[in-house]
Structure formats: structure tokens, C-alpha cells
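ERR on first pass: missing label on line 2. Operator R.T. fixed the label and resubmitted. Corrected input:
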Amino acid sequence: MFFASDNGSGAAPEVISALTRANEGYARSYGADPIMARVKTLVRQLFEAPEAEVYLVATGTAANSLSIALLSPPWSAIFAHVDAHAAMDECGAPEFFSGGAKMIPVAGAHGKMTPDTLKAALARIGEAGVHGVQRGMLTVTNVTEAGTVYTPAEIAALTAVAKSRNLPSHLDGARFANALVATGATPAEMTWKAGIDVLSLGGTKNGCLGVEAVVLFDPTKAWEFELRRKRAGHLFSKHRYLSAQMEAYLTEGLWLRLATQANAMGALLVQGLAQVPGASLLHPAPANMLFPLWPIGTNDRALSRGAIYYPMQGPEGVDHGRLVASWSTTGEDVDALLTALKP
Amino acid sequence: MFFASDNGSGAAPEVISALTRANEGYARSYGADPIMARVKTLVRQLFEAPEAEVYLVATGTAANSLSIALLSPPWSAIFAHVDAHAAMDECGAPEFFSGGAKMIPVAGAHGKMTPDTLKAALARIGEAGVHGVQRGMLTVTNVTEAGTVYTPAEIAALTAVAKSRNLPSHLDGARFANALVATGATPAEMTWKAGIDVLSLGGTKNGCLGVEAVVLFDPTKAWEFELRRKRAGHLFSKHRYLSAQMEAYLTEGLWLRLATQANAMGALLVQGLAQVPGASLLHPAPANMLFPLWPIGTNDRALSRGAIYYPMQGPEGVDHGRLVASWSTTGEDVDALLTALKP
Amino acid sequence: MFFASDNGSGAAPEVISALTRANEGYARSYGADPIMARVKTLVRQLFEAPEAEVYLVATGTAANSLSIALLSPPWSAIFAHVDAHAAMDECGAPEFFSGGAKMIPVAGAHGKMTPDTLKAALARIGEAGVHGVQRGMLTVTNVTEAGTVYTPAEIAALTAVAKSRNLPSHLDGARFANALVATGATPAEMTWKAGIDVLSLGGTKNGCLGVEAVVLFDPTKAWEFELRRKRAGHLFSKHRYLSAQMEAYLTEGLWLRLATQANAMGALLVQGLAQVPGASLLHPAPANMLFPLWPIGTNDRALSRGAIYYPMQGPEGVDHGRLVASWSTTGEDVDALLTALKP
Amino acid sequence: MFFASDNGSGAAPEVISALTRANEGYARSYGADPIMARVKTLVRQLFEAPEAEVYLVATGTAANSLSIALLSPPWSAIFAHVDAHAAMDECGAPEFFSGGAKMIPVAGAHGKMTPDTLKAALARIGEAGVHGVQRGMLTVTNVTEAGTVYTPAEIAALTAVAKSRNLPSHLDGARFANALVATGATPAEMTWKAGIDVLSLGGTKNGCLGVEAVVLFDPTKAWEFELRRKRAGHLFSKHRYLSAQMEAYLTEGLWLRLATQANAMGALLVQGLAQVPGASLLHPAPANMLFPLWPIGTNDRALSRGAIYYPMQGPEGVDHGRLVASWSTTGEDVDALLTALKP
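pass 2 clean. output:
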């Protein structure tokens, strides 16, 4: 009954086993290991992007902040949804890595910017000449913080607005595989074909121990990225252990299989909640994260019965929570939770 | 015959096995895992420091830079040996994390500062009132970049100079266990009893996959450290995998056993090199790292025979190299290298 | 007919004359000039703050950013009105000086925060533990960017909210004298008696060439301020020329006389606009800055007739502008403008 | 008898008078004043550089740090003489403005780098791949901190070394006019013809109140410079007062006349010291700054007789001091000082 976060789950057996295999013998350090060469090939194939450069780090905050800093001069504005992880949950990491760029909150229902809300934010910034920060970049999160999902077309509509101002676009894909599964899009469709320049490709939440790839579809700034990664302490000496995780993750569709299971359990939760009297969803939940509203008392009851999830502050008069399914969530887990929720 | 670096070695079986065990079930994220609680207890016991705060990160650069930034205002001077890793091999990470503090090179033979060279550096900085940077902190590396080792008394002599100016002291212990084994000192003797305020305790090079502890002997700034770690992207969500490595590393003396093996192989190399005609050592080599000088042609010969190590730029007229033994180096490896070196 | 900004006006004769007098002979540099000693005494007397420390810089952005950086760790949130100069018109200077702190926009009609809008912003930030930026400080602008004025009681109500969270408060007083004149408050009532910890006291816009004082009512961080000022290139070597401006400005009530004239001309504009058919004010205008709305075509007509002011983007269907009176504005200027505006 | 620094002198009458003239009426702010347009034309003519961009700030630290930051990514090394003002006397301003670039001390007698010492410093930095900071730029000071002067040929020899590594070069010309006078070089010969890309052109020490020009011989990064200047609080609203100083300074050779007087008084001091028993010079003194050594007791005697200069720490067994002449130093001042020095 663990639904607190997908980062509370363990690593998939395939990943652990790859790690153990990678432990044999000696290996060149700092990314010169042979596994990393294979990872790069894999990513290029899966994303149909033969020019892309690929780097690994261990945390999502590192992947996002290094990507954002690469695209944002210190005097620029970073446009992100008002609730984006990078804006609210990384303790100012984008500001730190970029040397003080400014995150501009973009509005939008259900955790999603729209071309109109983005245009409104763009109109407010960058018209003050030298007196204001300059428009810098767009960062989109998919799956969003609200558990909703952008389609490739929706992403393309946002990046088109950015491109009309000559701004590059980043995708925070901490739950990228879940977004692919939820939409049926290919990796290329969800990224560069939709105008994304840099991707944070998450592995940690979806069955790895701690690994995220940064994919630069335009490799022009690759060396600068390497310097930034090193300077921030995010270049691993025993890099093979990052490589091995990512290789296993991307091999034979493991990443999609794990995300399929997580999303399926999300869907089962949605179905089940429909049977819980008085329960509803604050946002649509097409992937593995749900924000239910339910009658007052539900949180106390469920948590006291051993359910593990975050009770949230929500509208008056109801209880609110966040449920996250992961690759290791089972149908039994879902059933147990639903039982715990019911009076 | 891999002597390029101890970071080319794998992880010890005990560490891999701990990682696998830690993979069971769900765990609270971000350091709230139960293994981390045990790690903290272990460190406090081993260091006889019941008040110490303990944090884990994945790289040595992160451990050093976060520690240094904690002790150095942006307008301050960081005193370090001219060849220190933090000064020369971290792409300016201390400057980045501290917001632009200034590393002041301190001279000293064989990679070691002395009280006199430190005093000379201190005298040059901090006398300019508001016009110059202010004296900030001391950072000592043990084992040094030259493969030499400070005794606790030598460290205490340096920190005493620092304390006479009210400056805190940091120990970069990327090879801390090797230094302990080489000197026979206890963890407490090498650190807080010798005036060290913050320790970077390395695990990665000595049998882990990627984990370093930061030990704050004075916990006053613990919360600030946590904020800095998060903001720099160095707080792991699936933190249990860092905890598990460190727990295994510190349990039943594994760290010292591994370092003992590495140092013993270092000693075997020293012994063996005495038999190589024309070979000598640039620095004393009491731990696991040697900087040999040998006749011109030796590097070409050995490397072409499959030896793996760094040929270095050295004095004219001789070949030069760096050899590093690790926990996994065997007597056979040493023999093979010595054979490869000989004409 | 120059109403573009009060920074388009020249310096008052008393200030120019003080500058010329200060030019005699040699003087100690970097703030050790005897005039600065008198300035410090003057400020302490005028503000009834015998402990206060006083520093001079040449621009408002410098005064604000150094003050804000003094009160804001890099991982903190700075609460400011959504339209505050520091938030919108300083090209990210607070972020630069603070090392990446985050400005949090606080809502409020007519350029003014209220205790409720401040509480709402505070509630949104700082609840995420280590994952979010920490609540840092409050900065209030008086006169506001909308030309409105906070009373001391209104400021006290805001700083009380800040103090309930242990947050310090800064006042951006680029037009401080205008705010004093508009409210009849004493300098002490408007600042430390209302809970302000640090003041940016503007001279430039109100009859000086370029000088602003930073007043630290609590001198604990005075030395840190001096280091920050030097490090940012804002410590003047020939400091006497800053001192002389500020001494003249604060002597015999010059600052209040100049602001009285500017505000009187503002009031005359308000009166006169009441006679312009179809004109109204977007915000109350108790000081020297007005934001009029008037029929479409008014801007074209007035500007083509030689009026100088900023046409602004405003609501659909009307023209909009910003008018700023200064110490050197005359009744004839106002009359000429009103004539130019009329059909 | 004021020889403490040229920044203790006042402003030349021509400059004060220009300031007074500039005070008439209203002027566009932030550099859009008509005087600034004339300053730009003047600089372009005097430097034979029709493409150059010209910006004004009020302090030398601002001019240097903004220039350096423009040329130095945060992960780069700035090569400067070990005693350079930017390295030792600006409280880490280059590190602050650049976001943590690293100043690398370059050796050299009498305050001057040589091609060989620069090559030695370059060889030590930038060979560590991603692990070390990258070579960034060269900054040369003329007149040097030791009071010596580089000829254009000497500067060209240094910038040639820099250019062989594709590094840009900056000239800190806080005493640029004194260097021109001492060498007879033209502005162009001392700068872009000698390989200088960006110049800090000092006015403050040589008869202005507080103004320095930054000259970008290659205007490619002009807009970035403007953003950096604003963001650092160094863009003046009442900019005309900077413009007026610089216009007067560069008009009809005032800058060279003032420097000629300062250098002549320096030469008179050199001559006079030759008559002081036991006095010698630590460095050659071709401009307006001398570092004399003289018998113990001389400092006490001269200072007690009212001489004003900096006693310095020097070699054992002698007294040491720094004497700086300025545009306002007279022959009587020099005579009085020499009398005060003699037993």
C-alpha cells in the first residue's frame, strides 16, 4: 500500500542485475566506459536522432538544472508552469546553476501551460529593454506535476510559441516513459519532432536506482554541458554504474514495460475510486499519478489502516491526497488501498 | 595490470550485496530511509563524535564543494595546496558552489603544506581591509595528490595556524581510509582531534560504486548544508542506495580492510620498483599511489605490453608515471606490471 | 514639458554647489572623507537612529540589490509586489547580487501589497522543507511603481506579517522623500518604527546627480555590507563626491523641500486632468507620479505638441500614459502639458 | 604633501565646469543623453576605432569586472599578474561578476608579466580536459601596480601569446593616460594595435570625479555588456553626469595634459630621491607612482612632519613607502616632501 511516490519503489531486477554485471573488472572512468558508448547508441536509435549527444547524471534536479543553465543566460527568464518541479521543488536549483536566471510562472489548469497562457507570460517579460530580464527559454514537464500529460501536439504548440521568439525548449521528462505510454507517442514525436531541444530523460522513478539522461538534440553546446556537469560535481568517476542502469532501462523496451505497469495501476486506481462514495479527481489522471478528493475523514481512516500516501491541502470541506503508482505496484496493492479508503 | 586510478576498480562484493539487499520493498526517500539512520550512528561511533551530522552524496567533487561552500563566504579565500584536487581537478567547483570564493595556492614539497607555507599564504591575503578577499578557511587533502600522507600531528599543526586566525578547516578524505591505514591513526585522531571541522569521507575509490559522506563535527550549519545539497541536485530521491553502500563500507571494518589491501599493494610496488634498474620515486609513497621516474623508453615499453597507468610529464631526461593500487589489486597484478616495466 | 521621469531632471543648485565646494584640496578616499562622517551623523539624527550604519552608492539598483543580498541567502524567497522595481526593472539584479534568490510576486491593487496578499504568498512558499526555497525577506517600495503611497501603518502591517515568520524587511525608498511629504510621516515613523530593517534612501531622482544611501538600522551586518559593496564595484574611491551630494540633500530640509515641490506639481496635474474631458487616473496619485487614461488620440496629439512622457500600454479603447513631476517641474510646465493634452 | 594616492586629488576645473554645464535642463536618462553620443564619437576618433562601442561606469572595479566577465565563462581561467589590482584589490569582484572564474597568478618582476611567465602559467592550466578550468583570457594592467609601464610592443608580445591559444585580452587602464604619456604611444598603439580587445579607460584617478569608460574594440558583445552593466547596478539614470566628465576629460587633450603633470611630478620625485641619502627605488618609476626604500626612521620622520603617503611592508632593514603624484601635485609639494624626508 505504498503510494507516496514512485521514488519509494526499488529498482527493477533487470537493472540490479545489469549493475552486478557491470561490476566485473576494471573500467575507464568519467564516462569512457564501454557501456556508455552503447547507451549513446541506444538513445540515438530510440529517438531517431543520430546527432544527439547523451550524458548521464544521478538525479532529476541535476538533469533539469544543468539543461536549463545550458539554455539560460543569467539575465534571462525561464518560462515554466507555476507548479513545475523545477520552479517549486528544487530549492532554487535552476537559479543556482544558471547564475540567477528568473523563473516566470506560467498559468494553466491541471498543471498544463497553454499557448495562450505562455503568450501572456511572454508578453509581460522582455519588453523593458535593458531594464528587464530577457526572454530565455521554455521548460515543459511531462508527465506534469498534476499527473496530467501533454500530447506531442500540445508540446509542439508550446514550443512553436517559444520559437516565434527564438527561444529554445527543454522537456523535464522525469516521468517521460509514463508520458509515452499514456499518449502512445514515440520518443522522437514527444521530443525533437515537437520542437524540444534538450530532454531530461528520467530513469530513477521508473525502476532505476538513480540515473537520468540529458539528451541534447543539437550537440553544439555539448562541451559546455560537460564542463557544467563536472563543475557541479555531477560527473561520476565510476560512471559505469550509471551507464549500466541506463543500458538495462532502455534495452528491450524495459522502460516502457515498467511504465505500462505503473500507468495500468494508475488506471486501476481511477476505476476503483469511481466506486468509492464521494471520491472524485482534482485533475484527469492518464498516467500513474492521481490527486483524489474524498469525504473528510477518509485520509485519517486510510492512513491509520496502513495506506501510505501524501495527504494534501485541498479545497475546504473535503480531504485531498496524492497517489502515485510505480512499476512495482500490484493489483493487490490497489485493492488493499481501495479497501482502506472505504468506510 | 590496471593502475590508472583506484576509480577504475569495481565495487567490493560486500557493497554490491548490500545494494541488492537494500532493493527489497519500498523505502522513504531523500534520506529518510532506515539504513541512513544506521549510517549516522555508525559514523558517530567510529569517529567518537556523538554530535556529528552526516550526509551522503555520490561524488567527491560534491562532497568537497558543498563542504567548502558551507565554510566560505563568497568574498573569502580558501587556502589549499597548490596541487590540491579541489584547486586543480574539479573545474572550479569550489568557486561555483561558494559563489566565487578565491582559492589561494599554498606551496609545499610532496603535495603537503607546512605551517610555514600556510602562514606565508595567510600573510599575503586578508591585509587589504575591504579591498581584498577575507581569509576564509583551510582545506587539507589526505592522502595528498602526490600520494603522500599527513600524520594527525601534521594536520593539527596546520589547523592550529588556521585557528589562530579563527578559520575553520576541512579535510578532503577521498582516500581517507588509505590515510588511516598508512598512519595507524583513528578516525577521530585524524579529524576533529586534529582540528578538522568538516570531513569529506570517501567511499567511491575504495570499493564503493559512488558514495561519499560529509561529516559535520559541529552540527550548527547542518540545515544550511541540507539546503545546499538539495539546491545543487545532490540529494538522492532513492537515497537508500547511497546509505546501503556506506553502511556496508563502514561495517566490520570493511573500509580499513580494503584500504589495507590497496596500501599493501602500493608497498609491494615500492619494493618491486627498487629492483627496476634506474627507477626512483618522485615522492614518498606510504599509501596506494606512486609517482615513479624511470629511464626513457620505459613508458612505451610497459604500455605496449598492456600495462595501464598514466604517463605523466616529468623532469627532462626520464619517463614519469602515476601508479595507483586499489582494494582489488592483487600481487599478480603487481608482478605483471613489474615484468612489463623491465627491459 | 518634460514628464518622462524624475530622473530626467537635473541636480538642485545646492547640490551642485556642495559638489564644487567638496572639490577643494585632497581627501581620504573610499568613504574616509570628513563629509561622510557628517552624513552619517545627519542620517542618524534625522532618523532618530543613533546606532544605524549608513553607506552611499550611486544608483538605486545598487542600493536595493546590495540591501536585498544582505538579507537573502541564495536559497531564499524575496517577497515583493508583482510590479516592484526590483522585480521587474533591474534586469535580475537582486538575483545576481544574492546568488540566485527567488523573487516571489505578491499581488495587490494599485501597486500595493496587503497583509492578506502577503500572507497568501507566504503560504505558498516555504512549506516544502528542503525541496523548496526558504522564506527570506520582504521588500516594500514607497512611493510604489504605481505612484501610490503606503502609510507607516500600512508598512507596519506588512512587516508584522514578515516578522511573524522571522523575516526581515527592506524599504526601497527611491522616492522616499516624496513618500514622507505625501504622508506627513517622519523618517523614523516610515522606517524602523514601522518595522523596516534596511532602507534604500534615494537622492538621485529628487535633485541629486547620483547618490543613494543604504541605512542599516541594525548594524550587525555592516562589515558584510562593506565587503559586498566593494566586491560589486560600488565603493567609490573619490567618495567625497557622493558624500557632498548627500550632505547637501539632507541639510536644512532640502530633500523635503524638493519633494514638496514635486508632489505639489503632481497635485496640480491631478487637478488639471480633472478638467481634461474624458481623462481619469488608473491609480490614486498622492505623490509625483500619475498614470492617466484619456481618449484615444490624446497621446498622439500631446506628444506631437512637444510633451515628453511615456505612453503606456493600457486597457483597450483608451490612451494611457505615465507622468512624473520632479523638484524642477514648474506650474508653467504643468499648464503647458494640460494645454497640449486638450483637443 | 599628499602622496597617498591619485584618488585623493580632486577633479580638474574643466571637469567640474563641464558637470555644471551639463546640469542645465532635462536630459534623457540611461545613456541616451546627447553628451554620451559625443563621447562615443570622441573615443572612436582618439582610438582610430570607428566600430568600437563605448560605455561609462563610475568605478574602476566596475569597469574591470564587467569587462572581465564579458570575456570569461564561469569555468575559465583569467591570467593576470600576481599583484594585479583585479587579482588583489577588488575583493574578488572578477570572481563575483564572472560567476566564479579563477584568477591565475602570473609571475614577473616589477609588476610585469613576460611572454615566458605567461606561457608558464598557460602551460599549467587547461591541460586537464573537463577536470580543470579552461583557459579564458588575459588581463594586463598599465600603468602596473608597481608603477612600471608596458610599452605597446610588450603588450603585443603578451597578447600574441594569448592569441596563440585563442584567448582575448583586456587592458586595465585605470592609469591609461599616464601610460600613454610615459611611452609616447597613441591610444590605438597601446590597445587594439597591440592586440587588446577590451579597455578599461580610467578617468577617476586623473582629474575626474568618478568615471571610467569601457571600450569594446569588437562590438559583437555590446548588448551583453549593456545587460551585465544594468544587472550589476552600474547603469546610471542621470547618465549625463558621467558623460560630461568623460567629454571634458577627452576634449582638447585634457587627459594627456593632466597625466603629463602627474608624470612630471613623478620624475621630479625620482630626481629628488636621488639626493636623499640612502634612498633607492624598488621598481623603475616612469610614470606617477614610486616605491622608495630608505633608511629606517625615514617613514616616522616624514609622516610626523605631515607627509601623507602609504608606508609599506618591505625588505628587512629599510623603510618602504608608496608615493603617488597626481594631476594636481605641484613642484612645491614635491619639495616639501623631500624636505620632510631628509634627516
